[in-house]
Design a protein that fits this description.
eight-stranded antiparallel β-sheet; 547 residues; alpha+beta; 12 helices; Beta-galactosidase, Chain A, domain 5
Length: 547
Amino acid sequence: MDTRRLILFVIFSMSILMLWDAWQRQNAPAEIAPQAISEKSAADQSVPGQFAVSTSTELPSEGSYALLKGQRINVVTDLYKADIESVGGDLRRLELLKHRADDSDKSNFVLLDDAGKPMTYVAQTGLVGGDLPTHKAVFTSVANSYQMQPGQDSLEVRLSWTNNGVTVDKVYTFHRNQYVIDVTYEIKNGSANVLTPAVYYQIVHDSESNQGSALMPTFTGGAYYSEGTKFKKLAFDDMEKEPLKLETSNGWVGLLQHYFVSAWIPKDGLARSFYTKKLSDEIFLIGTKSPLASIAPGASLSVPARLFSGPQSQKDLQAAAPGLEYTVDYGWLTIVATPLFWLLSQIYVLVKNWGVAIILLTILIKAAFFRLSASSYRSMAQMRELAPRLQSMKEKFGDDRQKMQMAMMELYKKEKINPMGGCLPILIQIPVFIALYWVLLGSVELRHAPFFGWITDLSAIDPYYILPVLMGATMIIQTRLNPKPTDPLQAKIMTWMPIVFSVFFFFFPAGLVLYWLVNNVLSIWQQWYINKKIHAENLAKKSGAKR
């Protein structure tokens, strides 16, 4: 394989791998039914005495889907500005005070919202069994607004419901500097009847918003985790074709989008049934339901749960629940990407600039692969030295490809050159480069992170396209460091390829372009140095032969 074919092969391979990985992440089907059976068995064996998931406490029928509205309760903490609806005590709107909206320096990012078009995203809970309050029941609150005061570590918002002697308090507890919200039901049975309740937690989301772009595909959809199934994603289409039905004794359900996640985390050890449902043409839900212990007349029961709703920061995710860190999904390269992100984070701690951290990490990776790269570039340089002789052979044999190939192989044998010598070292590096690509694409830490000068957001497109232009220039230089292909078609492809790829990079986030630019600059230096060295060796060999 000659140099230009090698370059074409590597670029094409990396492009196909990235596109294939993106397609899998966007469209991978969920395997549900077989796991549901095994998970139920595991739950029955590992948690003796736990309730099986009851079918007598059915979830409320939605009928014609609509979000009911009553009175809003406003909550302000150090991290959130939230709206809680009196109907159901739903969390209807959640504004993240530490994260700006896309392409905005003034407004905050709104994660949850019930405004409808263009987005519906709501966290609901409810109780079923008897006349207990579902997400359609009306709660009351002693105040219409709550605010976390300076020095206050937590803020409690209590909603109340009473009917036929049964009192239910739904208590939200917001914590300072935490994206985990405690949601607790306190049930007091003042009736003469035994209550056999079940609790459910669900997230409602539309299928149209937060879908990313064609060039930068990102996943928006459901997700769940249990010890048996591990982490699984569910596209909205999958929810419609094969609704989720999974029984387990652990885990969580959630909703993913680029950089952010919301997940319901029920009480540890509580039996639970994961489910999905299509509510209307564009509205879906994912949830979990759990049976509770019977409540005798005069008795009480407290049912805790947690809602994580915020950025996909590795530190916050790992602290919230097992498996939640996998929502930052690196796909089949997780085993490579995870340590890369850890190293990038450690560098950032030292330099306090994510752009500088990307540069230093790229240098470290390049240094780690220096010897492998050198082997590849040496093979390319040797092929470059043979270019004039190969051109002469082409002119000599014309269109007789068989004789041309035989003459080339004889020349390679004589000069002790392996034309495939540059392939393996580059192929070994491809998974690392793609893993770093996904790290930079999926890390919320880079969102609105400045570099310097005109680069104020490493997750956004370079506003003046300076980095993509420089990227294109480095590709042109790399092309010219290799011999000009003897085949006119290949020569045209190699001429236009830097321009075509530069156009793609115009739509990539600045952090990704910075990484590729630094990597190209280092590659150019290494390739130029080796080319010069091989050329000097070749001249010395010719000089010695003449003597």
